[in-house]
Design brief:
Blueprint lengths: L48 H11 L1 H8 L4 H18 L2 H10 L3 H9 L8 H10 L1 H18 L5 H20 L3 H15 L5 H20 L3 H20 L7 H14 L3 H14 L6 H17 L3 H19 L4 H16 L3 H19 L4 H17 L7 H18 L5 H19 L3 H26 L4 H16 L3 H19 L4 H17 L3 H19 L6 H15 L2 H25 L2 H4 L4 H11 L10 H10 L2
Length: about 650
């Protein structure tokens, strides 16, 4: 794959998301300069009176902080957001000290988090405090635990509700920022107040709080404790349902159960919980909760190969979040990540890259660059760019994103965290391709050895978490098979490919995309390196069958299978079949160009407006004459899809 000449497009990922503060020159007046006409103030170049007042408060915050903290919660959030911006611009130690002292106060944080629609303002200052010193998080957890237990020395129902609410809000904030361990510790303190001899009301509180802790633990890859909580939550849900007790927020609880089982590769269980979550969704839920439910449902539909339904759900999440939260909100970035995953799974790689780029821009503005949420964007961008530019061989951008994700994960989570395994795997894939393209044999060998160490380290973490007989382990086996093929160790490569196929078939079925991928890799090993043509031919046919069945005639992976068969028949002297598949390959290229043009349209590349989505969903219905004019109609439609 050497000798590629196409220029790699540099993308400025650090461009501000909007230009609300850009001033433009006014057109020249036709009147004489002596005519003193009054000009209207520019909204873009002048701050509002409210912003001026906030600035004045910041300047005198050291003297007035006690009085400032008596402001209403929304104004208080804006003040601390402005203080954070001032500190970023001038690095004033006074401002830094005020932020550190005040945002360590549990009661003040609880007040700030009470302003739900302003909570995103707090991500920036708290993220800076967490990154500058891990002692901040430790002190936050200790302070909450001490206050909670001292206040509950003489318990009452009102005190219990207060501390449960406070802990849930604080834990949710930290989880949304990617500080999963601290979030788990805070919610664990709350859960200890509830657990025991439970009434229906207490069981209700346990289900909500316990499922939150379960989700934080699963995000932090602490699976044994998460599974214990899963069993308890399911038990209490069953008991409450039998007692005809209404459980609030049940859709989100089901979605958390789906998320845990998806991570554990229990895909059929995850799909069942995801569909139950969809059935419980109502428009009274917060938009953030609806997007979370839709995201889990879309992911489950992708795994179960219901791609049309998956895309409808993911697009519904994007539209609802953009309508109600705006396009600069973390909820919108979450929806874009779900849509990007869906696009990548259905072979719309360019559309996936666009979604991940936009999500990264939003998260960088809100959380900063050195944040776990931004690192997830970097990882997904690295892999999608790797797939998009695979044939052309432009891997520089993909490698940069992979390295940035690994750097952030290591600094935030530690070197032995399972989350780092996926990012290392992506970097190893990219380095292997760069090595193959290199004409410097010493550099090539060095890069391949580095990739091998990355793969082996990732495999070790994965096997420790999931065991050998699991889909994540099988994916690593497949990657190692390809790498050993590049290292010319063909027997090892064959063994790893066969193990990958065996495990994937067991857990995903014989016609899954992952199975087809490994079958195609084994076929390429037999065809190009081991010259076992009789073994390669049926594997190529099987890989083609799976690709056509799942994605149709324009599936990008078919190119490698058709090229492989053409090479095989050329080597064996079967010129009739060689010409036959050269003709098929030409037909495929025509189909592929059509798919690529479709993927470049607004419908596939850009998150649609609500109106656009309604039109798309209406066009998919058969004989539907009614007009869908609410978000609930979207939900009803996607639930009806098979």
């Amino acid at each position: 794959m050497s000798g590629r000449k196409v220029q790699y497009p540099r993308i400025n990922f650090y461009r501000p998301h909007d230009s609300f503060h850009t001033s433009y020159p006014s057109p020249r007046s036709h009147k004489s300069h002596r005519s003193r006409t009054r000009k209207e103030p520019s909204l873009h170049s002048h701050r509002s009176l409210y912003e001026v007042c906030l600035s004045k408060l910041v300047l005198c915050s050291d003297q007035l902080i006690i009085l400032i903290n008596r402001l209403p919660e929304p104004l208080l959030c804006d003040f601390y957001g402005a203080l954070h911006q001032f500190n970023r611009n001038c690095a004033n130690p006074v401002y830094a000290r005020i932020l550190a002292n005040q945002l360590s106060d549990i009661s003040l944080l609880n007040r700030l988090l009470n302003a739900e629609h302003r909570r995103s303002i707090l991500y920036g200052p708290i993220q800076v405090l967490c990154c500058e010193s891990r002692e901040y998080l430790e002190q936050l957890v200790l302070s909450f635990s001490h206050l909670c237990h001292s206040e509950m020395a003489h318990p009452s129902e009102s005190l219990l509700v207060y501390w449960v609410t406070c802990g849930v809000r604080l834990g949710q904030l930290l989880q949304e920022m990617g500080w999963y361990r601290a979030a788990s510790e805070i919610v664990r303190v709350v859960l200890s107040l509830i657990d025991g001899d439970l009434s229906n009301r207490r069981k209700d509180m346990f289900v909500e709080t316990g499922s939150r802790l379960m989700h934080s633990l699963s995000c932090d890859c602490q699976f044994p404790e998460a599974q214990e909580l899963e069993s308890k939550c399911i038990q209490y849900i069953s008991e409450l349902t039998s007692a005809n007790h209404q459980i609030p927020n049940l859709a989100v609880v089901y979605a958390r159960l789906a998320a845990l089982n998806d991570i554990l590769c229990n895909y059929s269980v995850a799909r069942r919980w995801a569909l139950k979550a969809l059935e419980c969704v109502s428009l009274q839920l917060p938009v953030k909760s609806i997007v979370f439910v839709f995201g889990q449902a879309s992911k489950s539909c992708v795994v179960s190969k219901k791609f049309r339904k998956a895309e409808s759900i993911a697009r519904g999440a994007v539209n609802i979040s953009s309508l109600y939260c705006g396009t600069n909100d973390p909820v919108y970035s979450d929806a874009l990540m779900h849509l990007g995953y869906c696009n990548l799974s259905i072979d719309l790689t360019s559309a996936a890259v666009t979604c991940f780029e936009r999500a990264h821009t939003i998260r960088q503005e809100i959380f900063g660059e050195n944040c776990v949420q931004s690192a997830f964007c970097h990882e997904d961008l690295a892999y999608s760019l790797y797939v998009k530019n695979y044939l052309e061989g432009f891997f520089r951008g993909a490698l940069e994103h992979a390295e940035m994700s690994i750097c952030t994960f290591l600094s935030s989570l530690g070197s032995d965290h399972l989350i780092t395994a996926s990012a290392r795997r992506v970097k190893a894939l990219i380095q292997e391709e760069i090595a193959i393209d290199s004409k410097d044999m010493a550099k090539r060998q060095k890069l391949l050895n580095e990739a091998l160490q990355l793969h082996l380290g990732s495999l070790s973490l994965t096997m420790k978490a999931f065991g050998e007989d699991s889909v994540p382990t099988a994916k690593h086996y497949g990657n190692l098979g390809r790498l050993y093929q590049s290292l010319k160790e063909f027997q090892k490569a064959e063994g790893y490919h066969k193990d990958a196929i065996r495990i994937k078939e067991k857990h995903l079925g014989p016609d899954d995309y992952e199975v087809g991928l490994s079958v195609g890799h084994l076929a390429a090993l037999y065809c190009y390196d081991m010259e076992e043509f009789l073994l390669a031919e049926p594997l190529y046919f099987r890989s083609i069958h799976i690709g056509l069945k799942l994605f149709g005639e324009g599936f990008s992976g078919l190119e490698f299978d058709y090229r492989g068969l053409i090479h095989l028949y050329k080597k064996t002297g079967d010129f009739a079949n060689q010409m036959k598949f050269m003709s098929k390959f030409d037909e495929y290229r025509f189909k592929r160009d059509q798919v690529s043009e479709k993927g470049a349209t607004k419908e596939d590349r850009e998150p649609l407006t609500l109106l656009d989505t309604l039109e798309v969903l209406q066009s998919e219905t058969q004989g539907a004459e009614q007009t869908m004019d609410t978000s609930e109609s979207i939900l009803n439609y996607i639930l009806s899809q098979d």
